[in-house]
Design brief:
It contains 18 helices and 10 strands. It has 489 residues and is of the alpha/beta class. A 10-stranded mixed sheet has the order 3-2-1-4-5-7-6-8-10-9. A hairpin with a 2-residue loop joins strand 9 and strand 10. Helix 8 crosses helix 9.
Length: 489
């Protein structure tokens, strides 16, 4: 099974219509979705009385994709014509309404922005046949394929801009281990990408499923929103692979609604929020206006922190990834957001991650913040997670691993102050100390090392990192100055 992706890529490289890894992954994704969805429908037909598919009969995978080796399988120009003039137009136009169940609605959502890039019908038939070889109705085979799917998601890291959708599995698993979700929790990610946090949570919940009631809770446990089409489709497919029959994964922008409209009484809030908010982006004024004036930041990640505060239940808990810019930023909006965070929640732990965790997508240094709503912060522990022994950088071939978090998990069991070479590696600060620093949370950071001679590529990457960090600081200072000037007028 390990050669599955390579076989598909080798075939598609011969097709003039598919340009680059990103398009190859998109092509793979809609085919896999239809194959996996057809397998799920086989199971639903067995267990649900009078089950009817939302997909027209002639467009179901079993009725056009399966090659019975009798010479009648669609191929060449006939297959291309069918896919381009029947399959895609009809799936994009499936009629849905407010009563359409999620397991049917996802078909229309999946194809809203999907495309067939292949121009050679014979090669498309070869790709379809390879996809059809996997039996997704078999539990063991479906879960074995889960590992292949994980590799497809990793491949996104080197597929142009798509890399932003993948958070390393070791990171998502670590946040889940610290948060410890239960089968009774409702778990959300408002920028869910391909579903890394949600599937880590599901893997943690799976052993807790012991009764049919637990299975129903498991199926209803996760909620996600994703703005971009490809990761949305990848996420829906990912959850189907994880035995979620009704993936509540919505295609849209989590920031496009006024935050004050969210009410716990309406079911808008969650027990657990796990996410890596997009950062580095700037939202338009119409999006910023969905937030109270004092929280209107120009940085996307800041707005997501505010959103989380509005969508956590009164005793909800969160584990999120944030860039250094959030910690050290002291412009008006960032300060107001951090003040709100420490007032409404107990920010109990901040883990400073080593550089290059998200390489090659970004070299910006990131942090893990853990907090619980319902009680103000009294003290916050900061812990610096150093680069593992033998590593200078993480990379695609040497990624961060679960084992690297073992010392952090051990420390979390009994947090104590740690000083190494005269620098704080772990230290607790009271909320008054944090206020006195104007909510600058850049604490227990990485000491400056002696300068070393780097390879040209590493030197350029380091230069790019420092340039990005300086730009963030300059942006913060300029924003602060502009606000001061506006106030003075």
């Amino acid at each position: 099974m390990g050669t599955f992706v390579k076989r598909l890529q080798d075939i598609m490289r011969n097709d003039a219509g598919v340009n680059g890894d990103a398009q190859r992954i998109e092509q793979m994704t809609w085919l896999l979705f239809l194959k996996i969805y057809d397998a799920k429908e086989e199971i639903w037909e067995l267990h649900r009385d009078n089950y009817t598919s939302i997909i027209p009969e002639n467009l179901r995978w079993r009725n056009w994709a399966v090659d019975e080796k009798d010479g009648n399988a669609l191929t060449g120009e006939k297959l291309l014509e069918f896919v381009n003039t029947e399959l895609f137009p009809h799936l994009k136009a499936i009629e849905v309404d407010d009563t359409t169940p999620m397991h049917k609605l996802i078909v229309r959502n999946a194809f809203e922005d999907a495309y067939n890039y292949m121009k050679d019908g014979v090669l498309l038939r070869q790709v379809v046949n390879v996809v059809d070889e996997i039996d997704f109705t078999e539990h063991m085979e479906r879960h074995a394929f889960g590992e292949i799917y994980e590799n497809i998601l990793k491949d996104l890291q080197s597929a142009g801009n798509s890399g932003e959708f993948y958070t390393p599995r070791a990171v998502t698993d670590f946040l889940v281990q610290v948060i410890k979700p239960t089968i009774d929790d409702k778990i959300a990610d408002f920028a869910c990408g391909t579903g890394g946090f949600l599937t880590s949570a599901l893997n943690y919940l799976s052993p807790q499923v012991r009764t049919p009631e637990d299975k129903e809770k498991y199926n209803e446990s996760v909620f996600g929103v994703e703005k971009k089409a490809l990761p949305h489709l990848l996420c829906v497919t990912n959850l189907l692979l994880h035995d979620i029959d009704d993936p509540k994964i919505y295609h849209g922008n989590s920031l496009d609604k006024a935050v004050k409209e969210y009410k716990e009484s309406k079911g808008d809030c969650f027990d657990v929020i796990l996410m890596n908010p997009p950062y580095g982006g700037n939202e338009k004024d119409s999006i910023k206006n969905n937030f109270p004036p004092e929280l209107r930041s120009s940085e996307t990640a800041d707005l997501f922190v505010s959103l989380i505060l509005y969508r956590l239940k009164r005793t909800g808990r969160a584990g999120i990834v944030l860039p250094d810019g959030f910690l050290f930023g002291t412009d008006n909006a960032k300060t107001a957001i951090k003040e709100k965070l420490l007032t409404e929640c107990n920010l109990h732990t901040v883990i400073r991650l080593p550089h290059s965790v998200f390489a090659p997508y970004t070299s910006i240094t990131t942090n893990l913040l853990f907090f619980k709503k319902g009680k103000s912060t009294e003290k916050t522990w900061f812990y610096r997670m150093d680069m593992p022994s033998g590593y200078k950088n993480f990379s695609k071939t040497k990624p961060i691993k679960a084992d690297h978090f073992a010392p952090v998990l051990q420390w979390l069991e009994n947090p104590v102050k740690i000083v190494e070479d005269g620098f704080d590696k772990a230290k607790c600060y009271t909320v008054d100390e944090l206020k006195a620093k104007n909510y600058n949370l850049d604490l227990c950071g990485f000491p400056h090392e002696e300068e070393e001679i780097l390879e040209p590529k590493e030197l350029l990457e380091q230069y790019h990192t420092k340039k990005t960090e300086l730009n963030e600081k300059i942006e913060g200072i300029l924003t602060e100055l502009l606000e001061l000037l506006e106030e003075a007028q």
